[in-house]
Specification:
By secondary structure, this protein is mainly β. Helix content is about 10%, strand content about 35%. It contains 3 helices and 11 strands.
Length: about 150
């Protein structure tokens, strides 16, 4: 089980329902979410999904890419399988996220579920609130605080 990894991609969209696009750098705002993202300020401020999970749908959708599951942060090398609500993540030295939800119901019309017959976000994605904000970028380290998971 990996307790640390790195930020693989950062994805945002200005309007809910719009396809997310990738950015190199973003700002996490305390108790709000990612600056400029449509889901900031909601109950699910930030969504995270491990890039390793993409392999489960890649056979059916070869060009699947970060942001296609509407996740904000795609990680590499970080294990989410034993996460619990209340666990804390650190990005770099200053940013702190608290896990608030594990998975979510797949929305009606999810094209991934329609093509593949399944969607990974309901089981493997997590949502977090921003406890301590800051600027982060692709390649930054992300780790469970105090080896919580």
């Amino acid at each position: 089980m990996n307790s640390h990894g790195r930020i693989h991609r950062i994805s945002i969209s200005e309007e809910k329902g719009d396809k997310k696009y990738n950015v190199d750098t973003a700002v996490l705002v305390t108790d709000y979410g990612i600056e400029g993202d449509a889901h900031a300020g909601s109950q699910r401020q930030v969504s995270l999904l491990p890039f390793e999970s993409f392999d489960k749908v890649r056979r059916a959708i070869e060009d699947i890419k970060p942001g296609d599951f509407a996740e904000n942060i795609t990680t590499v090398g970080l294990d989410f399988t034993h996460v619990t609500i209340g666990s804390n993540l650190r990005i770099g030295d200053s940013i702190k996220l608290e896990i608030t939800q594990i998975g979510k119901e797949c929305h009606h019309g999810c094209y991934i579920r329609e093509i593949v017959g399944d969607c990974i976000m309901p089981r493997e994605g997590v949502f977090a609130r921003v406890v301590q904000g800051g600027t982060f970028r692709i390649g930054d380290t992300i780790r469970w605080e105090n080896n919580e998971v």
